[in-house]
Amino acid sequence: MRIIVLVKQVPGTDNVKMDPETGVMIRSGKDTVVNPLDEHALQEAVNIKSRLKNVHITALSMGPPSADRALRDALAMGADRAVLLSNRAFGGADTMVTARTLAAAIGKLGPVDLILGGERATDGETGQVGPMVAVMLGLPVQTYVRKIELDGSSVTIERIVEEGFERVQVTGPLVVTVVKDINQPGLTTLRSKLLAKKAQLPVWGPEEIGLRPDQLGLKASPTRVTKVFSPKLSRNTELHHYVPGDTTRRLTDFLGQRDFIKGGLAGE
Amino acid sequence: MSESNHKGVLVLGEQRDGQLKQVTFELLNIGRQLADKLGVELSCAVLGDHVAGLEEILARGAHRVYYLKHHSLVQFLPGPYSRALIRLVRETRPEIMVGAATTTGRTVMPLVAAGMATGLTADCTELDIDLETKLLLQTRPAIGGNIMATIKTPTTRPQMATVRPRAFAPAQPRQEGGGEVVEVQPAEDTFSFPESFLEFIPDLTQEVNIQEAEIIVTGGSGMKSAGGFKLVEELARELGAAVGATRAAVELGWATYPHQIGLSGKVVAPKLYIALGVAGQIQHLAGMQTSEVVVAVNEDPDAQIFRVADFGIVGDVQEVVPELISAIRQIKSARGEVQS
User: Fold this and answer.
1) Can you say whether the dihedral through the CA atoms of A251, A254, A256, A262 is positive or negative?
2) What are the beta bridge partners of residue A84?
């Protein structure tokens, strides 16, 4: 069984900057982590490998050259191989073109049975790349997945939806995006980290994946960020230090005036 | 697909068990605003079988309902849904398509967008029309809500976006009437997908759908224990609210993951958000800061949650919350006496 895990390197802190001209995020390369939900995807691949024979895991990422750190983390967690898609031509891609780039690379990696990824990344938060990759590869997709049961050639999926859970069966290869409920990522050993640090890590550009520069990056992207601005966040906060008997009455008045206490007297 | 010959606005309605979801009416509101600005018609696609209330979609502002009716479309499956929708979009050529940022919308809209080789903007909180270019302006929070970005899809069609539930009020019934329900028979190849729906298991711990709740009471690690977290549930019951939890509270096992609010959980924007013992990490703020009214109780006067609060109480949740619950009960029972 061949598994590909899509891994994104994301900023570890919240102090990300955006280029005011292009609206593209500036990734400094400092203080980055593996997107947390992608860690769950990796862990799921590792868990499958521990249960079944002949499982091979490839971690695939697109990003700046420094994204090799995320892939080395993936190797330390248990991936057998990692490939980095990194080239100036890839820069500024929106979700559609990112998916196109990843799908082309997956095509070059050979046959695959399961493609895993996090449901969304903490920086872009779109959750679109996984499903879009599925369309481009002509594969079925399941999203918001919290349980994967493999049974021969079919997979039973449990996904979290607004009102509960859905169980779906899929036969053949598929793309699955996972939520954090699916597992608990384990700790990596120092030894596996050291090995991962020394591993050979191929870096692929447009030629290796067989796409022309005009099919890639910002230029090929159907969406354009045209404006960035600060949200109206500041509120006129009324701050009260708790005084027994008094402060909660002020709060119930506040809530009552806005009709939040159903059946309350306030405001009548 | 390029911009010529595309006209009209299409919104993607949602149903469960044949009942239209509230978010359908929210989409009709914003869809109609966009259609009116462009002087074009608003259509609404609904997939399912035996769906009730399609006339209500017309009454609430759509000129047309495309009813993609088939027993295999009763439950959401990404393959059949996306195939049926891509075919509809190819045939009806809308210039704009808007879906909900729900587990369904956030799954099927990327499939349609990739199928049409067009752009899609997730989780928009505002949509508007640029009057000069007639392009759709898609505005969404970015980078954990620290910044807003406006995005355009200049040349490919349709211009696609998902909007967050509750970002828009539901459309109200109108007087004008009219409109038509067009039943569309999905092509047979719609169903040649290797997916089959097994079952739906309702989450009984989540009586109120947190993203559709008008009021949410959220507890953080400041509730100190599983027993302390019960105060959150008690206050929520008193206010008819949904229960939310921070990542820390979920990791401590005081609440289940479907209740988690923040970047790695759900993004919510209720009318009233009450944060109890919540420090206000940026990941959490990003999931709730567009709430209409925010109340926060925390011991630490410098807690970040107060930055986004309208009403803050610096105090011990174990003291404040029980007193608040009994004050609300008094108000309610007093009203009960007046009414009786």
Assistant:
1) negative
2) A61, A203
Chain A contact for B206 (CB, 8 A cutoff) = yes
**Given the DSSP bridges, would you call strands A224-229 and B147-152 parallel, antiparallel or unpaired?**
antiparallel
Burial B133-168 (b: 16+ CB within 10 A, else e): eebbbbbbbbbbbbbbbbbbbeebbbbbbbbbbbbb
Main-chain phi, psi angles of A66, to 5 degrees: -70, -10
Note whether B239 and B211 are within 8 A (CB).
Answer: no
Q: What Rg do the C-alpha atoms of chain A give, in angstroms?
A: 23
Q: Which residues of B touch A142 (CB under 8 A)?
A: 78, 195
**Distance in angstroms (rounded) separating the CA atoms of residues A188 and A180:** 18
CA-to-CA separations, A256 to A207, A238, A244, A248, in angstroms, rounded: 65, 16, 19, 12
* Other Cβ atoms closer than 10 A to A217: 20
| Residue B206 in this model has a pLDDT that exceeds 90 | no
Nearest to A254 by CA among B324, B51, B221, B77: B324
What gap in Å lies between CA B257 and CA B243, rounded to an integer? 11
DSSP state, residue A172: S
Is the model's pLDDT at B199 over the cut of 80?
A: yes
Cα B46 versus chain centre, distance: 17
From CA B319, how far away is CA B316, in angstroms rounded? 5
Q: Is B131 an 8 Å CB contact of chain A? A: no
Within 8 A by CB and 6+ apart from A3, the residues are A45, A48, A49, A55, A56, A57, A58, A112, A113, A114, A115, A116
Name which of B68, B110, B226, B24 is nearest A124 in CA terms. Answer: B110
Distance between CA atoms of A118 and A127, rounded to whole angstroms? 8
Ranges of beta strands (E only) in chain B are 9-12, 15-16, 19-20, 42-48, 64-69, 96-100, 120-124, 126-129, 136-142, 147-152, 159-163, 180-184, 195-202, 215-219, 242-245, 272-276, 293-298, 311-314
Quote the tokens at residue B19: 């009942």
Q: Which of A125, A230, A256 sits opposite B123 (nearest CB)?
A: A125
Residues of A in contact with B271 (CB under 8 A): 260
B94-105 tens-digit pLDDT: 999 999 999 999
pLDDT of residue A266: 39
Residue type, B28: L
Q: In this structure, what token pair is assigned to residue A130?
A: 């996984």
- The shortest C-alpha distance from B177 to chain A (Å) reads 32
Q: Which of B156, B208, B323 to mutate to test the interface with A (most CBs of A within 10 A)?
A: B323
A167 near A157, Cβ under 8 Å?
A: yes
A-proximal residues of B, 16-75, CB under 8 Å: 16, 75
Nearest chain B Cα to A20, which residue?
A: B149
Report the alpha-carbon distance of residue B221 to residue B288 in Å, rounded: 17
Q: Report residue A18's pLDDT band, with 50, 70 and 90 as the boundaries.
A: low
Which tens digit of pLDDT belongs to each residue from B25-66?
Answer: 999 999 999 999 999 999 999 999 999 999 999 999 999 999
Work out the angle at residue B84's Cα, subtended by the Cα atoms of residues B79 and B86, and round it to the nearest 5 degrees.
Answer: 95
Helix or strand holding residue B237 (H, E): helix B226-239
C-alpha separations of B332 from A226, B327, B329 in Å: 50, 9, 5
Q: Compute the average pLDDT of residues B274-294.
A: 89
CB contact under 8 A, B306 and A96: no
